[in-house]
Structures are given as structure tokens and as C-alpha cells.
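Workshop exercise sheet. Pairs work together: one partner reads the sequence aloud, the other fills in the structure field after running the prediction. Swap roles for the next sheet.
Pair: D.N. / O.F.
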Amino acid sequence: MIRYFVHRGGHTDLVDRLDPAWLQPSSGVVVWADFQAPTADEGRVLREVFGFHDLAVEAALQEEQHPRVESYGSYLYLVLHGINFHADQHQFDTHDTDFFLGATYLVTIHDGRRRSVAHVAELCGRTGHVLADGPVALLHRIVDTMVENYRPELDELEERLDEIEKTVIEDPGSSQVGSILSIKRDITHLRRIVVPQRDVVARLARREFDAINQEMAYRFRDVSDQLARMAEDAIVFQDRVTGILDAHLASVSNKLAQVSKLLAVIATLFGPLTVITGLFGMNVPIPSLFGNPAYQFWEICGLMLVSSAALFFWFRTSGWL
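Structure field:
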């Protein structure tokens, strides 16, 4: 589906058809073309009406492109990522949004589920100043909204990390390896998206492209700073989850060592019993113990009890138990 927002004569309208004359720099018209899950026929509009390069169009119609920005002379091609974190599914949803930025137009291409684009489109339907500021300001508004949506998702990820950390400390016997590795995968994916996206926005803030004036560079610099802080948060999260995993594995190893030591003590305590019963169970004549032969059985039981008690006392004094 394609929808066209056109700002002309001080008003913003949603139209069904695009007039190619509106794309000329002298038209005085600002156009926002929003492509939602475009089909192959709708993709031809990018080539035939807007005149975008085939390689750029092919990349825009693909999913999961890496964040980047490229100049094609009269327009810029950008790929940025929005974020959704599904805590119940323990996974991130980070589909890319593609932008074509020209002198009088902005083209967005996405899967139709981007919250930032939907929010800005709603604003365009209510007020005309959103497009009146030009396509660069519109790009900044969408990107800034995308980045603002990162913060609650990061807070939710941090809360989940706190819960796992608390569980590892308070209940070291529970198995948390699966949860820890799952959140570690999410954090790694977050870094893989945020860091290159920070670099893309930083290029806009440094005015590497003529389409970005000084005023808009300041605005993009603020967005770049937010992404830089999020990248630092992702690094901190990764360090934390590594420490949690190490602590959990150490706790499991310590518990295993305690169990092994207990089993070793039990086996050692039963050692004299095995020796004595094996000795007196041989089918050969052996010397009898002291006293009446009728009490030999109880004397042997007493000998086993004393030997095990002596070993137990030695373990206690040696610090094994």
C-alpha cells in the first residue's frame, strides 16, 4: 500500500495519486510517500516515478538490511531500524525502515508495523506544520521517534536482567542458564543494531551531505547522542550478563563440589564397614574376638561403629564437614 502526504498552499492532504511535477525542486510542494509492505508493482513506482537507482530500490525492497546511509547525487538512501521487545517471547523485533531523501520529498519503505511512522503519519493528518518544515525535518521527526521508542524497550530489558540477577543470587540452585543465554542473545542483537545506527546518524550530524543544513545537523546530533548512550548501555548490559553467567556457573560448580564432597565422605565412612564385613565374611578360619563367642556379632558391629565414628570425628576436626 502507498499513501501520499502532500503539503502545498499551507495545507497537508492525503492523496491517492502522485503528480511527478511535485518532485521538482521549483514546485514548492513537499511530498511524503509512505510504502507499506510494497508489492513488485508498487516497487516500480520507485524506479519509474522517483527515478531511484536499481541497486537502491532492490535493497529497499529486501528485509533486514544493515543500517547505512549512501548518497546517490540528488538524493540520500538510508536504512535505520525501529525496535519492539516482546518480553513474553524473549526476543527483539527490529525490522528496518528504508528512507529516500530528496530536495522536496521523503520516501519511507517498511513492513507496515512501524510505530514511529504510524505516529508521524497521524500527526500529518492532524496538523500541517509537520511537512511544512521540509523533508529533512520530517526525516528527523521519524528518526527521533524511532530512537525514543528504544528507551522503554531498554528499560524493560534492564528489568528482565535485574530479575535474572536477583534469582541467581537468592536461588543459586535453580537453573538459569537458558534465561541468561537468551537475554545475552538479545543484548548482542541490540548492539549489532544500535552501534551502526549511531554511526549513520552521526554522519548526518556531521553534515557530510549537502541536504543537511546546520540547524538540522544540531537536531541529528541530539539523536546521535541518544544512540551513543544506548550503545554504552548495551555494553554495560553485556558486561552484567557475562558476570551473572559466571556467578551462576560458579554457584553450580560450588554446589556440585559440595555434593561430591558429601558423597566422598559417605563412601569413606562406609569403607571400614566394607573391610570388616568382608574380612569376617571370608570362608577361612580367622581369629575370634575377645569374650564369649556368642557375642562376636555385636562386637563386630561395635567395631564398625567405632571405626566410622572415628573417621567422622577426623573429618569434623579437619574441616571437611
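Discussion prompt: Strands lie at 2-8, 11-15, 30-36, 68-71, 76-81, 84-86, 91-93, 96-101, 105-110. What would you look at next?
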